[in-house]
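WARN no homologs supplied; continuing
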Amino acid sequence: MKMNTRRITEFFSNPKRLLTFLIFFNIAVLVISLLAFQPSIARAQEAAPAEAGFGLMAAAVAVAGSGIAAGIAVYGAATAGAAAIAERPGIATWVIILAGLGEGIAIYGLIISILIIGSI
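OK structure emitted
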């Protein structure tokens, strides 16, 4: 059976369609996960206090937010850095340093989440 890859490529080449697909796919995975693990979630809620859940949610938000911010920072450093290196190759070291600073944001978010989980 031969697949029609042209239709798939056209579908995912539109950013709005791709974003819509990813959102619905993530929601579907979340719903299926919640339905599959419903009994174990109910037992875990009886044993754990509500305050621990808020701490874990704060740690997750810290990691997710810092990861997204690091991605944006590295994207900016990579796109601008590629153009800068094309014009002046001697600036490559500075571009790598700036990209590393962008990755530092993710590490700081991870450290904050470890501190939050440690205080629970």
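The chain has a mean pLDDT of 84.
OK
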